[in-house]
Amino acid sequence: MLATSLSRQGIVVDISPTLDIAREAVLTTDYDAIILDRNLPDGEGLSLLAELKERPARCPVIVLSALGALEQRIDGLDLGADDYLTKPFATEELLARLRAVTRRPAAVLEERIQLGGLTFDLRHRMAEIDGAVLDLPRRELLALEVLVLRSGRVVSRQALEQAVYGYDDEIASNALDSHVSRLRRKLEPAGVEIHALRGIGYLLRRIG
What we know:
Blueprint: H1 2-8, H2 19-28, E1 34-36, E2 39-40, E3 43-44, H3 47-53, E4 61-65, H4 70-78, E5 83-86, H5 91-101, E6 112-115, E7 118-121, E8 126-129, E9 132-133, H6 138-149, E10 154-156, H7 157-164, H8 175-187, E11 192-197, E12 201-206
Parallel strand pairs: 1-4, 4-5
Antiparallel strand pairs: 2-3, 6-7, 7-8, 8-9, 10-12, 11-12
Helix pairs in contact: 6-7, 6-8
């Protein structure tokens, strides 16, 4: 139910029902955030925090648990969690806490990125061209967000796929290319283009 609620907000969600699956997931995918339960079938969820500390890229973690006593919350925060939310909870509060722990670096903290005639609102996940809202399907919007955040730099195909699809999604061989192709045509009036580098990835840049 939580995954469904988050997906409706345009968030790509992977579900790991056990610690073992979670370990494999964080080794193979760079996540923007992790929501971690404690009572997992194969152990204490907090044990994953120590392993996450060893990773070069820091991924924020929100513990979401029915274990809400003061000592239990302190344990989670002391072991490295960025936030601790007890059950029952309001989805709106969880979304707010996710926004808080995934704030972009200062360089893009202004929340609205301008590139040519294209404006991308990071807070509301909305794109505009010359002030007119650009109506985009969910996957195209997710792809555009990643490209905008890294405009002027190459985004690998793997990184773009991770941003657009969950690991349980079935991905046709040309699905990403189709999304990018449609997005490229929609961005033409903005004076920006998505340049494909064969075998490497994609680059969003201003034309001229």
